[in-house]
């Protein structure tokens, strides 16, 4: 049994004009110590998925269907009291903006001690010693001094190290990192990601990394999910997807990386933009932006416009694309003909 299992997860937001489907039929697993990346453009549903795992979807959002199982126990049907024993304790989250996460009127030490005492019966002295140890683990300079400082007295990189230390305070089994380096300089981003990867490996902690940066995902994760308009459209081993992407959207994301463009020429980009979740196109949600919607004979694939694609297996990956399914069927017929 996997440490974390997500089965047919649906998240809706109740609006006056009707429910908006933010996540549709999300399925994946995470083993102990495994590193999973979730990638996609803004609006793909990555952060909603992260909040849904911890049952932190705020109203008017709600989990409309499916299950999030942690060690065989369903989190989305747990009472708030039982859920508190999992949140922060067994599953921690690193949010995008450390200034929004840290309390500006409490010192770093007070916040870390408060977190420990909320989950464990522990003395203040012992809690302070644990907090100091975690700050040392994340290589924060002068950790004794930092305990007495307030968030505004630290740089962005230091604040993010504090957030990682807080996530590690209770020795969790899973860390969910939602765009953990968004507000940082490029050099600091690399340091933070290397630190997070090293700590997860040392403590055998499962990592769910949510980002739009395929370069980071390729270096840090073992498996990845590619999301588009609230659905997973490709999933499998990271190296396999990066080296041989099957879905046209994944191909577009990789081709949009700066290193894929010819020096001096315009960067590659996916035409159009992510559709509104309240007005999704029929069939495959990506079809208005897809360069492969037409067959070799110039005719549009009717299925792309009319049917939501199911998953087909390609190598070790699962791909939700009518074109891939059609190519596999053509290949099978040719082999049978021989």
Automatic annotation (TrEMBL):
EC numbers: 7.4.2.9
Q: Which domain of life is it from?
A: Bacteria
Enumerate the SUPFAM superfamilies for this protein.
P-loop containing nucleoside triphosphate hydrolases (SSF52540)
Subcellular location(s) per record: Cell inner membrane
Where the record annotates domain ABC transporter, the positions are: 6-254
Q: Does the keyword Nucleotide-binding apply?
A: yes
Q: Which CDD domains match?
A: ABC_NikE_OppD_transporters
One biological-process term from Gene Ontology?
transmembrane transport
Q: Its membrane topology, per UniProt?
A: Peripheral membrane protein
Enumerate the NCBIfam families for this protein.
oligo_HPY
Record family assignment: Belongs to the ABC transporter superfamily.
Q: What PANTHER family does UniProt report for this protein, alphabetically?
A: DIPEPTIDE TRANSPORT ATP-BINDING PROTEIN DPPD, OLIGOPEPTIDE TRANSPORT ATP-BINDING PROTEIN APPD
Q: What is this protein called?
A: ABC-type dipeptide transporter
Record the organism. Vreelandella subglaciescola
